[in-house]
Write a structure and sequence with these properties.
It is a single chain. This protein is an alpha/beta fold. It folds into two domains: 171 residues, UDP N-Acetylglucosamine Acyltransferase, domain 1; 89 residues, no CATH class. The longest helix has 15 residues. The N and C termini lie close together (6 Å). The C terminus is likely disordered.
Length: 271
C-alpha cells in the first residue's frame, strides 16, 4: 500500500484486497478517506486531492480514479468488471455505480448474468445524489441531475435527468460554455491575487511558458501544473477547489505514474 503526502485516512476506514491477499493500493497526495469507508479491491489507484466521504464502499477487481474526485457519503462503487474514472469527477451522496448485473438464477432462466467495464471520462459531474450508473461510457463534461438512472452511453457536455436518463440539454443548456485562454488567464490571475500573490506560483497561457526553476507553473489552457508539492502550492490548489479551478500534474501518462512520480519519495509505504 502506498499513501501520498498529506493524505488522511480515517482509523475507521478499512482497506483490503477483494480476492488477493496482496492488493495493489495506490492513493495520491492531499487526499481524504473518511470514517467507515470500505475499499475492498485487488487493484485500486486514486489520484491527488480526492475525497471519499464517510461510509463509501468500493469493491471488486480494479478501479482507477483520477485527480480531484469527490465521492459523496454512502455511495457504492462496484468494480467487478473494471472501472475507469477520469479527472475532476464528482458524484452525490447515496449513489451507486455498477459494473455487473449478476444475481438472478441462471438455472431458472435468468437472462442477466454479466460483468462489463465502466468508463467515466473527465469533468463528469453526477450531481445531487441518488444517481445509479450501469456499465456504460460517460464522455467528458457530462452532467446529470439528482436521481438519474444511467443505462446508456452519455454524450460529451450534455445534461441528463430522469429514470432512465433523458437528454435535457436543449432545455437548460450544457454544463460548460466556451471560455477563451485570455479569459482563463485573467480569472486565474485574480484567484492568485485573492490568495495572496506569491513569487513561487506562476500563471501561464501555455505549457511553453513552463520553466524548471523551482516554481510551480499553472497553464490555464491545458489545466496542468508543474507539481512541486510545496506547502504554498498545496494551499493555493486547495483554495481553488472544488469549483474555482481544477488542475492536474503535467506530463504524466497515467494516474498511477502521476501519483508516484512525485509522491513516493515523500509518501508513506505500508505492507
Amino acid at each position: 500500500m502506498f499513501i501520498g503526502k498529506n493524505t488522511y485516512i480515517s482509523p475507521k476506514a478499512r482497506i483490503v484486497g477483494f480476492k488477493s491477499d496482496n492488493p495493489n493500493i495506490v492513493i495520491g497526495d492531499n487526499s481524504y478517506i473518511g470514517d467507515d469507508v470500505q475499499i475492498m479491491c485487488d487493484d485500486f489507484v486514486m489520484g491527488d486531492y480526492c475525497k471519499l466521504q464517510h461510509h463509501c464502499n468500493i469493491h471488486g477487481s480494479n478501479i482507477k480514479i483520477g485527480h480531484n474526485a469527490w465521492i459523496g457519503q454512502y455511495s457504492v462503487i462496484d468494480c467487478l468488471g473494471g472501472v475507469s474514472i477520469g479527472n475532476n469527477f464528482a458524484i452525490g451522496p447515496g449513489s451507486f455505480i455498477f459494473s455487473h448485473a449478476k444475481y438472478g438464477d441462471t438455472l431458472e432462466g435468468c437472462r442477466f448474468d454479466y460483468i462489463a467495464k465502466l468508463q467515466i471520462d473527465n469533468d463528469v459531474w453526477l450531481a445531487g445524489g441518488n444517481t445509479t450508473v450501469y456499465p456504460v461510457h460517460i464522455e467528458d463534461r457530462v452532467m446529470t441531475l439528482a436521481g438519474t438512472v444511467i443505462t446508456k452511453d452519455l454524450i460529451s457536455n450534455h445534461i441528463y435527468a430522469g429514470a432512465p436518463a433523458k437528454d435535457i440539454t436543449d432545455k437548460i443548456g450544457s454544463q460548460f460554455v466556451l471560455v477563451t485562454v485570455e479569459e482563463k488567464y485573467a480569472k486565474m490571475s485574480k484567484y492568485l491575487d485573492e490568495f495572496g500573490w506569491h513569487d513561487s506560483l506562476v500563471i501561464c497561457r501555455s505549457i511553453g511558458e513552463f520553466k524548471d526553476d523551482g516554481r510551480t507553473y499553472f497553464d490555464v489552457d491545458t489545466r496542468t501544473y508543474t507539481k512541486r508539492n510545496s506547502d504554498i502550492e498545496i494551499a493555493f490548489i486547495r483554495s481553488l477547489l472544488p469549483s474555482k479551478a481544477k488542475f492536474t500534474p503535467f506530463d504524466i501518462t497515467s494516474v498511477k505514474e502521476t501519483v508516484w512520480t512525485e509522491a513516493k519519495p515523500d509518501g508513506r509505504s505500508h505492507d
